[in-house]
Design brief:
Elements: H1 3-28, H2 41-45, E1 50-54, E2 57-60, E3 65-71, E4 73-82, E5 90-92, E6 98-104, E7 110-119, E8 124-133, E9 142-145, E10 151-152, E11 158-162, H3 169-174, E12 176-180, E13 186-192, E14 198-204, E15 213-218, E16 236-242, E17 246-251, E18 256-261, E19 264-270, E20 285-288, E21 291-299, E22 310-318, E23 325-328, E24 346-348, H4 350-359, E25 365-369, H5 390-394
Parallel strand pairs: 2-8, 10-16, 17-25, 23-24
Antiparallel strand pairs: 1-3, 3-6, 4-7, 5-6, 7-8, 9-11, 11-14, 12-15, 13-14, 15-16, 17-18, 18-19, 20-25, 21-22, 22-23
Length: about 400
């Protein structure tokens, strides 16, 4: 065969082989330029992050947590603030997909939201949003005891009385936090105050340990009281210190008052309690010294005893809202230590009352015993919570019902 013929034959074989290989390569390769997987990785991963803020819009209902979610990416930081720069703190989920505020939105407030995000491909961006809450149609306020910075006795509860009814007791109670310097066990209990208003007290299981620091943090701002109660639009806080362990024991059968301090007798004082056999009898049980009121006018008509008395009384120490006091009663001197002959109060001489007044402080318990009394001090008549067992008191918590 000639050289020219051999070369031509070789070219033919090469062309045939090449023609056979082309479709084979086309079927077996996934790297061709027409493959969907040929797109750069960043084109799928860099889709814009979609941020959703709840609530949204104008005049939305207050009282809910703010929730922010992210799709196609992650939240890296979130700021929710009102027009004055007060921020709602919150928690970012571990996967960065959501953020929820710790506190509830407040009525009548404009909020701005800034959400920093990052796409799956790593692109950072910031998204802004805003919403406003509807104003409160009614506001609920709180009167609390004791006052901040005070030193109180070992039986003093933390007590909050509300201006308006509280229907959402459990929701309100969740916002009330008591912290103590020594982990004191205690519980909230709901009751009706002597004024007829709703009230919630926190008392320890047993009398406080002297020196305990107690802090109330009532994070009520943005909480709805429920029907007819209105909204809370501020927080409340108070810090108190527990003083010496002073207990006043009043034996109406023996007509003696005994002041103990750190379980040691300091002084015994002859007294006269309420007259037996009628409405002038004293209360029994544990009453807590509410206030030292000094010299005040006492009028029997204000406590339902007609015109039995109307006089100025020295060294007055209030024990109940219904009008039981310990005080100086020099007009009853012949009865001290031997007969109960008052209109329900615990009377003593001027000298003993002056000394005793200087010794005691609000929060000291008066443990009153006697056969002929008009009953046990009710929980809402002053600070009568100690007349309930610990189990009974715990059942008054809205979170245990």
């Amino acid at each position: 065969m000639s050289r020219t013929s051999a070369l031509a034959h070789a070219h033919v074989r090469t062309a045939v082989v090449a023609a056979l290989l082309v479709p084979l390569a086309a079927c077996s390769s996934n790297a061709g330029s027409g493959s969907p997987d040929d797109k750069p990785a960043s084109s799928a991963d860099d889709r814009p992050v979609t941020v959703t803020v709840t609530p949204k819009g104008d005049q939305v209902r207050a009282g809910d947590s703010v929730r922010i979610t992210a799709a196609h990416g992650r939240l890296t930081a979130v700021t929710v603030a009102d027009a004055e720069g007060h921020k709602l703190t919150g928690k970012l989920a571990g996967d960065g997909r959501s953020w929820v505020s710790d506190r509830k939105s407040v009525p009548g407030t404009a909020y701005s939201v800034t959400a920093a995000t990052r796409t799956e491909g790593g692109t950072a961006k910031s998204t802004e949003a805003a919403f406003t809450t509807a104003p409160a149609n009614k506001v609920n306020k709180v009167d609390w005891r004791p006052g901040t910075g005070t030193t109180v006795g070992v039986a003093q509860p933390i007590s909050l009385v509300f201006d308006n009814p509280v229907k959402n007791k459990a929701e309100v109670e969740k916002q009330l936090r008591i912290t103590t310097s020594n982990g004191t066990e205690g519980s909230w209990g709901w009751l009706q105050d002597w004024s007829g208003r709703d009230r919630v007290d926190w008392r320890p299981k047993s009398y406080w340990k002297p020196g305990t620091k107690v802090t109330l943090d009532a994070q009520l701002n943005g909480t709805d009281s429920g029907a007819d109660g209105g909204w809370f639009v501020r927080d409340y806080t108070t810090t108190v210190t527990i003083g010496a362990r002073q207990i006043v024991k009043v034996d109406l059968d023996d007509h003696q008052l005994t002041l103990t301090r750190d379980d040691k007798t300091v002084r015994r004082i002859p007294v006269s309690g309420g007259t037996p056999g009628g409405d002038k009898r004293s209360w029994r049980g544990t009453a807590v010294l509410m206030a030292k009121e000094g010299t005040i006018n006492m009028n029997s008509e204000t406590v339902g005893l007609a015109d039995a008395y109307n006089k100025m009384v020295d060294y007055s120490m209030r024990l109940t809202w219904s009008g039981m006091y310990a005080h100086a009663a020099p007009w009853n001197a012949r009865y001290f230590g031997n007969t109960n002959h008052s209109s329900g109060c615990i009377g003593m001489s001027d000298a003993n009352a002056a000394w005793f007044y200087r010794q005691v402080r609000p929060g000291d318990p008066f443990e009153i015993t006697g056969k002929d009394t008009k009953g046990v001090v009710a929980p809402g008549n002053g600070f009568g919570a100690w007349n309930l067992s610990w189990t009974e008191w715990q059942q008054k918590s809205a979170l245990r019902r």
